[in-house]
Model the fold of this input.
Amino acid sequence: MNEYTINMKDYGYKGGALSDESHVPARITAVHRERFEAVCPYGIVSARTKTGAYRDFSEDYPTAGDFVELEYNPIGDSLITATLPRRSFFSRRDPTPGRGEQAVAANFDYVFIMQSLNHDLNPKRLERYLTLSWQSGAIPVILLTKADISDNINAAVAELSPSAAGAEIIPISSKTGYGLDRVREFICDGKTAVFAGSSGVEKSTLVNALAGEDIMSVSGIRENDSKGRHTTTHRQLIRLENGGMIIDTPGMRELGMWDVSKGIGEAFEDVEEFTHMCRFSDCRHESEPGCAVRAAIERGELSEERWESYKQLKAEAEISDREELMRRKRQFMKDVAVNNKNRRKHARRFGGKDNY
Done:
């Protein structure tokens, strides 16, 4: 067996007992459809999931940043036998209908929500990212990129502040280095940050600036609408020289809500403060007497736009909850049918009766 070459603590691993003493811990550094790149004590390896371990959905399917249990193979693909407990997890509703939840990243300390100081500045999209970020269990930080081309940074910060839900807003420029020292304070000494944002917000450019070298490909954007191509095509974890780590993700055109019961409460704490003050516990916040929400809007303490955003995200989350319930029900019925078929096959094979 090869000697260990990597200390997994450098990749944030906290230790813990594995199910098999011959297995080793690993961290997923890149996801390519059904195949993975991972770092383990023996170095960087290619890996795939062990079919039996993940077939019945008893294990969380790995994503970038996950710590996993690995059956190491020095001459071929290593096998991922289990996903270790997560301390944070970022997901969204899969844009492909019927697929449910889509994992984005795991085991990070911060979510860097990136919007650029051009046409991409969008308070409603920010609210979506913040809701999912708070739900993840990590701390969101808002990065406003391209500060070098902005005429009025303070106005942009003021525009987003009502939607920021207490998250720090940091204007930055990857070209001039403006604000990057503050960003580096978050990513050091084994800390991990996931970068989230739409295409064209300079995620890859920022990764290169923080790394001090061109490790990510970069493409330009269209000047008329500030839209960019996806330069990041897969989720991947990058370790910086200062010991910090970045999980870069492809730009997301859609950011559907999934399980955000906790995240909405954090992102819209100002709104829910009023929903809990209504006279009636089943208040629909429309025309009922004693509605604290409508009263707050009339007094100017709560904007109509903020209230509408809250209602929309709540409605999306409820739809996702129902869809997930139906998906699990269909999977359960499918599993029952397969088990019944196997039992009948077993009974016929051994000449007995199907008495199950």
